UniProtKB/TrEMBL annotation:
InterPro entries, A to Z: Nuclease_put_TT1808, Restrct_endonuc-II-like, Uma2
Top-level taxonomy: Bacteria, Pseudomonadati, Bacteroidota, Cytophagia, Cytophagales
Domain Putative restriction endonuclease: residue ranges: 16-169
Organism whose genome encodes this protein: Dyadobacter beijingensis
Pfam short name (any one): Uma2
Protein name stated in the entry: Putative restriction endonuclease domain-containing protein
């Protein structure tokens, strides 16, 4: 007896333009959404409590270049100092972007989107791996991303953009 795979539904709200090409993504699965929700709450509460700016979640366009790069990071932070980019969409470079890597999105998140963020000068980029309970943090140094830390399980995440925030990685799976 053959097992049928459920169909993959593509969400038009998750359409991005990456390097001039329109990309439509399927809706995320449970581990992705769970990690996204936990991280969003953690960051949004911290940023709001400290009046540091705003935290946003996909689907919401970050327009880095009109008609060429409209990306939707899973989560991103825009500081008060950078608030002029908060318009109808985000029109410019956020201070921090977070991509939650799913098995089907590895190349897109780890190579293509990370490369675009690096090219446009996003100061900090996180790659979150919910299945491994791991977060890699990249910081821009001389216009190139450098891995500033790889954290797993109960390691405490340390950031540069939000330098007083610290939390254990396993908080993404609560």
């Amino acid at each position: 007896m053959k097992t049928l795979e459920p169909p993959i539904y593509y969400n038009p709200d998750l359409t991005q333009i990456i390097n001039g090409e329109e990309i439509m993504s399927p809706s995320p699965k449970m581990p992705h959404q769970s990690a996204s929700g936990e991280l969003f709450l953690l960051l949004a509460n911290y940023v709001k409590q400290n009046k540091l700016g705003r935290v946003f979640a996909a689907p919401f366009d970050v327009i880095l270049e009109q008609d060429f790069n409209h990306l939707q990071p899973d989560i991103f932070f825009v500081s008060n100092a950078n608030r002029e980019i908060m318009q109808d969409w985000i029109r410019g470079v956020p201070d921090l972007v977070i991509e939650i890597v799913s098995p089907g999105s590895k190349k897109m998140d780890m190579v293509i989107k990370k490369g675009v963020y690096e090219t446009y000068g996003v100061p900090e980029c996180w790659l979150v791996f919910p299945e491994k309970v791991c977060i890699e943090i990249y910081n821009l140094v001389d216009r190139r991303y450098t891995l500033s830390g790889s954290y797993a399980d109960d390691d405490r995440v340390r950031l540069q953009v939000l330098d007083t925030l610290s939390f254990p990685v396993n908080a993404i799976n609560e």
